[in-house]
Amino acid sequence: MAKDKPNFNIVFIGHVDHGKSTAVGRLLYDSGKLQETELKKAKDIAEKLGKKGFEFAFIMDHLKEERERGVTIDLAYKKFPTQKFNVTIIDAPGHRDFVKNMITGTSQADAAILVVAASEGVMAQTKEHAWLCRTMGVGQVAVLVNKMDVVNFEEAKYNKVKEEVSIILKQAGFKVENIHFIPASAYQGDNIAKKSAKTPWYKGPTLMEVFDLFEVPKPPTNLPLRMPIQDVYDITGVGSIPVGKIETGIMKTGQQVIILPARTGKGITGEVKTIEMHHEHLPTAEAGDNVGVSIRGVGKKDIAKGDVIADAANPPKVVKEFTAKIAVINHPTVIAKGYTPVFHIHTAQVPCRFEELIKKYDPKTGAVSQEHPDFLKTGDVAEVKIVPLKPVVLERQKDNPHLSGFAIRDAGQTVAAGVCIDLVGK
After folding, report:
1. What's the whole-number mean pLDDT along residues 89-100?
2. Measured torsion, CA atoms of residues 103, 105, 110, 114, in degrees rounded to the nearest 10
3. Looking at the 3D structure of the chain, how many domains does it have?
4. Among the listed ranges 13-22, 116-125, 329-338, which one has the minimum average pLDDT value?
5. pLDDT tens track for 338-359
6. What is the extent of the structural domain holding 359?
7. Is position 390 within any domain?
8. Are 141 and 257 within one domain?
């Protein structure tokens, strides 16, 4: 059997109305992933609503409300095979959704396409998105210089935008020499899936070709074993079986593991007896695998969802307090010192207290804009000190990015999201 192509998640980001959804719709249409009838239907709706030219975007924005407002609200996922990958395209609406989706793990993007309209150049969200990509750990980026038809496919206009965007990406910490810039008209189909005759001066790849120039992300098997427990099953004659996804490292039968914080808060050690995946017993499993495990010496009373199975020789810390960089996505009022919402950290849900608001950043430049602010509101990016009210395992972004992210929820919605940059263990 041929090895399946690796999955690859690509998120489309950029300023509102610069053509993200149109680019994705055009890509699907030109590569035959979209039926003529679907496009015709979208075209009719677009014209009825007085939004001529929005048909490709409508393919992505299938929610009625979005069509009427002409903006992307929901995250649209589309599967798309290329020569090298099975790509999932994520059309991320605004930076709030992007942050939330990046952190809550629905779409750990492997790469981003930053869409910038040649007619307008760099705008507020262009900067914010570039910076957020970097903060959220998306290392690979390509830039689609869209709406080239509006500027008559002039090379000088393209160069100007390329220069502007390069400065921002450099500031955000990207290596610009490795980044592809593609002059395109998503609406007319230039350099999306097909090379355009209107840009004879451009010798680089189309948008579709750029996908295959991204590098396959390596599963983080080089990091120590970490498996957050999603559930614990009790199986007659077998005992307790914790199940979950191995986030990092490799698990082997016979391996000594520690489960943290466990009921005691100090952890419990055991030995991996069996590893099962898709009803098959395996000698080893690795990062990315969803498995069920039986562990000698560990019973159902000892462990629960939110605990982490780790390599006993290299365990993570149970956290006393931690410093995090957060983005406030959507808070009805303000966040001040003492605020105690629920933090969703891997599979754990723990109430945590805001102990200190250390500093606020300017989301357009990443520079510190205020030391020790009194409060934070929607749209703010800040560094904060947090105290968990129950034992929980968390790691620093630089030690293990896969166990450093979290979402903050309150009254049924995600109010903020962030990453741990430093911590004090118990």
Report:
1. 64
2. -50
3. 3
4. 13-22
5. 999 999 898 899 999 999 999 9
6. 319-425
7. yes
8. no
